[in-house]
Amino acid sequence: MSTRTISRLTKGMPTQDGAGVSLSRIIGSPYMQRVDPFLMLDEFKSDDPNDYIAGFPSHPHRGFETVTYLIEGSVRHRDHMGSEGYLGPGSIQWMTAGRGIIHEEMPQQENGMLWGFQLWVNLPAKDKMTDPRYQDIPPDQVPETDFPAGLVRILAGELNGKTGPVSGVATEPRFFDIRWEETGSFETPLPLNHTGFVYAYKGDITIGDKAVRMGEVGILSAGEQVQLQAEGGSGALLVAGKPLNEPVVQYGPFVMNTVEEIEQAIQDFQAGRLTA
Ligand code: MN
């Protein structure tokens, strides 16, 4: 079995997005550009309402998927079709924007900690104009499995015979939240050529002879398995997905294959027919 190592390492870049939400851009920054099929990864973590209260008012998406996973706090989303949902601690929303979603994502708290992630996952050309789809998953529908030093929340993909609730995604993702209760190691097989990364959201994680320190992302080499070592109290996201190997043309919240398709998306949005 070939074991994955860290091939690239960087820490997140502090920035703002939405109507003024302070966040750390981990993937999709000048220091770590997109890693196919992952376009972006943000972490928002603050107990200062000024950092998050403005939220993400109405904005469009086309051509990819947005994945929101919350550790603490609460967010409401509402879209142009009038559908509405709430995410609380431990919830995940896997939104397939397809040909178009216009929505808002707003914190539902005026104080306290808001802590979570948004991952952008690309869609293959054949699915970019598909119907929009939500998978809104409450925390009690996320299976957990023990390993000798802690537990794993299985959000997508299979581990120890249990399968995460997110399904039907083109890039065949694995999305695991690994939480160490004591010092030890966690290991799992991964599909050989899936792009994989580890984000250390609490404590430092060691992979091979390299440390991914808290707030850093380690992009993994190809391989059939990965082993993560950490101390009790640590937490990491382990995410993997099948690369698409297609051209990517991105203009903000529109991610297509060609410049012409981006121009079409902008025209459609301006004419009020992005979601038609
Ligand atoms: Mn959005």
Overall 3D geometry? globular
SS-based class: mainly beta
Mean pLDDT equals: 97
Helix content: under 10%
Structure description:
The chain is mainly beta. The chain has one domain (6-266): Sandwich (Jelly Rolls), CATH 2.60.120. Helices cover 4% and strands 52% of the residues. It is built from 1 helix and 26 strands. It has one helix at 259-270, and strands at residues 6-11, 13-17, 21-27, 38-46, 56-61, 64-72, 75-79, 84-87, 92-96, 101-107, 114-122, 133-137, 144-147, 150-156, 158-159, 162-163, 174-180, 184-189, 195-202, 205-207, 210-212, 216-220, 225-230, 235-241, 249-251, 254-256. The strands form 6 sheets. The protein has a 7-stranded antiparallel β-sheet, with no helix packed on it. A 7-stranded antiparallel β-sheet has the order 2-3-4-11-6-9-12, with no helix packed on it. The longest helix has 12 residues, at 259-270. The chain is globular, with a radius of gyration of 18 Å. The structure holds manganese (II) ion. Residues 56, 59, 61, 66, 103, 105 line the site of manganese (II) ion. Manganese (II) ion binds at residues 56, 59, 61, 66, 103, 105.
Structure in a nutshell:
The protein is 4% helix and 52% strand.
Question: Which keywords apply here?
Answer:
single chain, 276 residues, mainly beta, Jelly Rolls, seven-stranded antiparallel beta sheet, globular, binds manganese (II) ion
